[in-house]
Amino acid sequence: MKKLSCWLPYMIIVTVLFVPLTSTQITHAANTVTFSDTVRHWGTDAIDWAVLNKVVDGYADGTFHPDNPVSEPEFLAMLLRAYPEIKFLNAAAGLLWYTPYYDIAAA
Predict the structure, then answer these.
(1) Cβ atoms of residues 64 and 89 within 8 Å
(2) What is the number of helices (H) and of strands (E) in the chain?
């Protein structure tokens, strides 16, 4: 965990600076994702972009919870998903969903 917290500020900076330069443009009108709680939210376009680029996904009940704070595991998952060349395996039965992300971050 200490290793991750040491590199986390650097990963944030690289993500903020690099990912927008390498991302493709998406036409939102043709590729809109709808969650029941983001229809009139100020961040709808950014949420749609992130879902369509597989950086985030919603909850099973069709919501996104856009005003909830992002937890550390959620942030790590978004950060690593922003790099499509990184391949993930689903967490093994009985493990927490974010275990594969921490395994990659610790490597």
Answers:
(1) no
(2) 4, 0
Give the model confidence (pLDDT) of 22-59 as tens digits.
444 444 445 567 798 998 899 999 999 999 999 998 88
> Considering only CA atoms, which of 5, 22, 27, 24 is closest in space to residue 76?
5
Contact 8, 2 (CB under 8 A): no
Helix 99-106 and helix 2-22, axial crossing angle in degrees, nearest 10: 100
**Crossing angle between the packed helical segments 99-106 and 72-81, to the nearest 10 degrees:** 70
How far is the first Cα of the chain from the last one, in angstroms, to the nearest whole number?
Answer: 11
Q: Is the pTM of this model over 0.90?
A: no
Q: Among 58, 51, 50, which Cα is nearest to 19's?
A: 50
DSSP annotation of 84: T
16 and 8 Cβ atoms separated by less than 8 Å: no
Q: Which of 3, 4, 2 is nearest to 73 (CA)?
A: 4
